[in-house]
Amino acid sequence: MTATDFDSTTATQQLHLSPPRFPAHTPATAAGRARVALTRLWDRHGDQVGVMTRTMAGSPSVLDGYLELSRAMKCTALPRPLSEQISLSIQQHLDCALCLASRTTAAREAGLSDDDIALARSGTAIEPAAAALIAYANQVHRAPASVTSEQIDELRRLGHSDPQLLDVVALVELNHLTGAFNLVAGLLPEQDTAS
């Protein structure tokens, strides 16, 4: 059986049958740069540091990269509700249950309705400009080489700035990193509790 023979439903169901594949760390168990980074997070958030971040501490490079990109995206030119809609759409495609749970909570906190959330998970939105940007994000995720100059011009015409269009690329990659990490590590929402 090859990786392409798996469908995401089967993979998600299999995750529920097995424990996480990598340990979640604390400042006491992390090593090197990961210990320093995790200690800083622990000082700010206590034992509420999420299971994904604690598991990423198994690789200082992964944890550093995630934290830097995550910090950078907190200053995105994208409005938070639109950022959450894009994240929901990408995570729906990846089928990451942990990410979908987290992004749904964040979307509600950003003021999105259940209808907005459902539309985002299906890759669209009520507002044409938001729907176009979500479609662009999905294209960046699935087939980035297929994005055309005409599409970029149309997104600009709809009111999206160049910083927003570029930020979408980074947001898509942040979502891909977190979704892929959680799926490979075997992390589920019910495992994301205080340690």
Question: Could you describe the 3D structure shown?
Answer:
The protein is mainly alpha-helical and 195 residues long. The chain contains ten helices and no strands. Helix 2 packs across helix 4. The chain is elongated, with a radius of gyration of 17 Å.
Q: How would you briefly describe this protein structure?
A:
The protein is mainly α. Helices cover 65% and strands 0% of the residues.
Topology:
Elements: H1 8-15, H2 32-45, H3 51-56, H4 60-73, H5 80-94, H6 97-109, H7 114-121, H8 128-142, H9 149-157, H10 162-185
Helix pairs in contact: 2-4, 4-10, 5-6, 5-7, 5-8, 5-10, 8-10
- Main β-sheet description: none
**Which range does the strand content fall in?**
under 5%
Distance between the termini: 36 Å
What letter string, H or E per element, gives the SSE order? HHHHHHHHHH
Q: Which features does this protein show?
A:
195 residues, mainly alpha, disordered N terminus
